Amino acid sequence: MPDDDATPRAPRPALADAVHEIERHVAGGGWDGPVRVFALVRTAAALDADPGLADRLPAEAVAAARADAAHLTSVEQEGLPQASSLEDLLARLSWPQTVDGVALVVERVVLPSAAEAAMPADPEEALAYLMAHPDRQDVRIAVGVLRDGGSWCAVRARANDDDAAVAGGADLVPGLVAALATTLE
Question: Domain of life of the organism in this record (predicted)?
Answer without folding.
Answer: Bacteria
